[in-house]
Structure formats: structure tokens, C-alpha cells
Amino acid sequence: SLSTLNLPEQSTNPISVSADGEGGNVSEKQVSPDKQIRAALLRSRFADTILKAREKALDQTTKKDPEKLRREREELERVQREERARLQAEAKAAEDVRKRAEAAAAAEAKRQRELEREAAHKALQEMEKTVDINEGSHF
């Protein structure tokens, strides 16, 4: 298993506060969706580099036992597939959050415009009413 290699777990995840050795239990702060997308893209970009380095270290430590090497490679490939799937899901989730935030901001802006339009309409009606009253008092 990869944990027997004593390799440090490196995380490029800026939203992580702490993580166990396998990256499982992660407590997270609230971070903007743009930062989440960027973090997911960076992890995805460098995942191959990290896994290749682990594989190279694996080659050096298991040259004596070909069966162990085969098992470790299979485990490494499985972890790589899972990591890619997780990163894609994370990037998609962050993008969905960003889109929802944009939609909410657009809806709020539309609601605000409607309120301003309604207030302007009421003010215009008041001015017209005042003008009508003033014109009526002159005659």
C-alpha cells in the first residue's frame, strides 16, 4: 500500500484546514467558488506529476519483489483513477456553486431594479398629483 512508503501526503488544496494521512477526513473553511475551481484545477494539473513521483519511489523500493510491485502498481492506478474522478466531481461542483451564485446575484439585481423602478413610478405619480393640485388651485 502507498502508506507503507512513508511518503508525505502533499495537498495543494487551499481550503483544507487539516487532513489525515490519506486525505479522507478534511475539515474545510468557506471559500469562494472561484478559489475552489482554481484549487481543483491545480490539483488536477499536478496529480499526474505527484503520482509519477510516487510510482518512481515505488519502483526503487520494490525492485526485489515483482509480485509486490504489480500489486502496488495496480493500487497506484486505482488511486489515480479515483483521484481523477474526485477532482472532476469537485471541479463540477465548484462550477455549479459559481453558477448558482451568479444566478442568485442576477435575481437580486433584477429584484433591486424592480424596486427602484416601482419607487420611481410612485415618485412620478406623486409629482403628477402635486402638479394637478397646483394647477387646479390657480384656476
From TrEMBL:
Stretches of the chain forming a coiled coil according to its record: 77-130
Keyword Acyltransferase part of the UniProt annotation: no
Key words of the record: Coiled coil
Biased composition regions of type Polar residues, renumbered to the chain: 1-16
Top-level division of the source organism's lineage: Eukaryota
Chain spans, region Disordered: 1-34, 57-76
Record protein name field: Transcription factor GTE9
Organism listed in the record: Zea mays (Maize)
Gene: GTE9_1
